[in-house]
Amino acid sequence: WMAKIYLDSKTGRRSEPDLNRSIRHQIPGWEYSHHQSEITMGQHREWYRCSYEGREYVIAEHLKKGTSFRPEEAIRIAFTFCGENQKVIVGYIGNHQRNT
Question: Which residue, 13, 23, 33, 82, shows the most beta carbons closer than 10 Å to its own?
């Protein structure tokens, strides 16, 4: 989904107006969120940033499954789209990131 539908949507090769609906249809049980609270990202900066090829990226978009903070019951994949090189930058895979 991320390598095809999401990427094609971001590069303009496909029109996908509702990415959350799209992933729920393609991969039942998963959800997409395009943002994270500015307060949360400010208070836990290290959890919402990553480096790739010497540049720092904010990774506010994420895929999620489950709502628990127990690692065996939930997972998060945080990422962003880099328009400059037309790539998806995955910066975090694991259980819940820190939040408020």
Answer: 23
pTM beyond 0.85: the answer is yes
| Predicted local distance difference test score (pLDDT) of residue 71 | 74
The model's pLDDT over 89-99, given as tens digits with 9 standing for 90+, comes to: 999 999 876 66
Tell me how crowded residue 95 is: count the other CB atoms within 10 A of its CB.
Answer: 14
3-state secondary structure at position 52: strand
Measured CA to CA in angstroms, residue 71 lies from 24, 48, 67, 74, 90 at distances of: 21, 18, 10, 6, 19
Report CA 47 to chain centroid distance, whole Å. Answer: 12
The encoded tokens of residue 88 equal 């998806």
